[in-house]
Amino acid sequence: MKSRMYQLLWTEVRMLVNQFKQTITTPSMLFFYCVTVFGIFFVSMVVSSMLTLTPVFLQLGSVLEDIIDRGMLFAAIGLLSASSVVSGFFGLGPASGLTSIQENILLPAPVLPYQVFISNYVRRIVRRIVFVFLGMLAVLPLLTEANLLFFNASFLIMCFILLLETNYFLGAISSYIRIKIEQRTRSRLRFMVAALLGGITLLPVLPEFTSTFSLAFLVPSNAFTMVLTEMTGLFSLDISFIIGFELQFIVYMIAFLFTANICNYDYYEQFSLAKGRDESEGNFSRFARGEVDFSNTRFRDPMVWIMLKDFYTRLRSPFQIWKYVYVVAGTIFVVYLNVFRPEWFRSIQIPANLAFAIVPAFLLMMILLIQMSSVTSMLSFADEKENVYLLKASPFKTRDIVLAKFLLSLFEVGIAVIPACGLLIYILRIEGYLALITLAAPLTILFTAIGIAVGAYVPVLTNDPRTLPVPLAFSYPIINLSLGALMIAIVALFADSQNILEILPLYTISLTVLFLGIAAKAMNSYL
Amino acid sequence: MKSEELLRLARVLKIPLSKRAIRRSWLIEEILLEFERREPETAQARKLHSPAIQIEHLEKRFGSKVAVRDLELKVNPGEIVGLVGPNGAGKTTTLRILTGIIKPTRGAVKVNGFNMFSETVKAKHCIGYIPEKPTCYPSLTAREYIMFMSRIYDVPPEIALVRMRKYVDVFQLDEFLDAYIGTLSKGNLQRVLIVGIFVRNPPYVLALDEPIYGLDPRGAWNLKALIKRLRSEGSAVLISTHILEVAAELCDRFVIMNEGDVVGRGTLDTLLQYHKDARNLEEVFLGLTGGIPQ
Lengths: 527, 294
Ligand SMILES: Nc1ncnc2c1ncn2[C@@H]1O[C@H](COP(=O)(O)OP(=O)(O)OP(=O)(O)O)[C@@H](O)[C@H]1O
Ligand SMILES: [Mg+2]
Description:
The structure holds 2 protein chains of 2 kinds. By secondary structure, chain A is mainly alpha-helical.
């Protein structure tokens, strides 16, 4: 029995090593990795030379102490745990780590569920550590410039990951509770338990428990917040942050072993049920689903067909509906904020001595927000799964396919960007520079085109069109960040000249066309 | 076979290599002798429980949909049973329950006398499964995967090496042995999975879900020949297939399913006797599952 566990672990490690070997022997993969790492390195060098961060960080502490209070900090981080517990309740728990490969090979094999779980988890954590390490190396210039000790920053990030991993286990335990309850009752009331569990997780973050050092610090979110406060000196209690880390680690190990212990065959069941659902459609989206009848359509353009097909297939995933709900509710909310400026939600008051840093910060935030919203464009080809080959084999021009994907993604990204930018201009008031927000439009167009190009490359690099290879996924934000920063540099450079009205559109359009061209070229060179 | 592999095999098999110059032919002969000395002893040592596969009152629901209804099925050692039926009949579901991937809504499954739900590990240890859609770890090499399977099923490494060599030759996998599984073609992947099953200790209890599908004629022929030989050596095989000629040629008995129900069972002769107007298995099948199209 022991040796089977060992075999499983050994094989997982073997696979990681093989993947690494494959990566460094595949030039295109290596290329994307290098783009990513050196890109981040370069960007962080540029950013760190542009912003003098040290005074910002020195004062950030006192600014933060003014804006938020200790209880809020604990509550905010506690919310992270609570949300994993609530979403874990509806989630798959350890079954979410299973794949159909394991379903066919390990599930019928004489191994126990906890062994499968542990080997899966070890792989996950090794990968995570490697990526974090690479990431830390890449942002080294930024860290040194900010006078943050490399050790401190790495340590904080490690603790944060520890918190996230513990949260994952909490979610798994919460899903176990759901399975147990569902074996007893199917009454609707069982969903109340999710709220109850979330509430229980939030209870120990109350100031009553956290204002002094107490047993409540065994709660992972509290332990992490303690590391944060003691390390930065923000709301410090003058205890060594190492204690916080030790508490975190102990609870992490307990949660890990506990989760391994509750892994049983029920999770196999959960997995195959979820897979069955995945292959059909979500419960929730059924009511919102429309039918498309391609035989009887007004449109005579294949581009429109592809767009309609994509639109309706997307509508069948529950996530998409939540997104539209978010867009509508979010837009209404930010309009309300900007018009009425309510008392209870105040924008951040920037101290005068920090004002110099606020415009770059605003722009950076804007780029990041648009970046996050535009991820859907990168996925628009991956969403096709194996059908991407069907699409390619169908009698459409490559140009039409790429344009259809681009236009629909532009719509999706555009509507998601609106609430984010609205919130940004409300929170970070940059009086006098408000016109900068108009840059959001060219950025959105450009990022969407880049996303399409990166997404179209997936089937070129692998023969599994469902999953984005890691370097590809990572190079996307880097390309965005670089070209976005370049756009802003151009704007800054030509700000006073009339030419900006020609240069900016030229820049945006030519790059957009270039990336769409790359996407079309990628589609013509699938493996 | 490459010389290094020969040497490695010789070392694992503990063939004395003290002579200065070793002739290749001598070494191959020694290894083959050693193969024979080892294989039968393991084959004869074990015998399967009778029946090797026993499914009782099996029912599986997915929500309100009944995928399998009240299924009874037995496979004895030395017997090949064909599970046939139209698409969506519940064949794959049955095999997935049999191999312990999913749980039945009701009913019991025993493999080699072990109950799949109370003695899960023991039961799973006995059964080999070829899934409907062949998938495997893309970043392992074929050799690594096969050795991994042998370790999971407690096969000593030297025996595993010998068996791997034997079945790799049967299925012409030699040149793909060190290729990443992600780069293999569908048929070769299927062969790797098959070899992964046969490195275990015989006799086997097999649940094969359309194993012929995707293999080329030679691969299919080899697999059929192998299954027939295993039957004579006392293995029990439950095989789901759409290719009725294969089923008719290979199987001793049939279970015909339609929409979750068993609509016919028995040997080809009894089926033909019962359905007087049918001339072959195909017509029996069509007659039982919605009528023969004109
Ligand atoms: N995870 C699942 N969730 C919901 N329904 C399922 C699931 N798995 C199978 N089914 C349903 O159970 C029925 C039987 O499916 P099964 O895969 O066993 O058929 P099959 O006989 O193997 O068909 P085929 O010949 O096409 O392989 C089908 O109607 C299928 O839709
Ligand atoms: Mg099937």
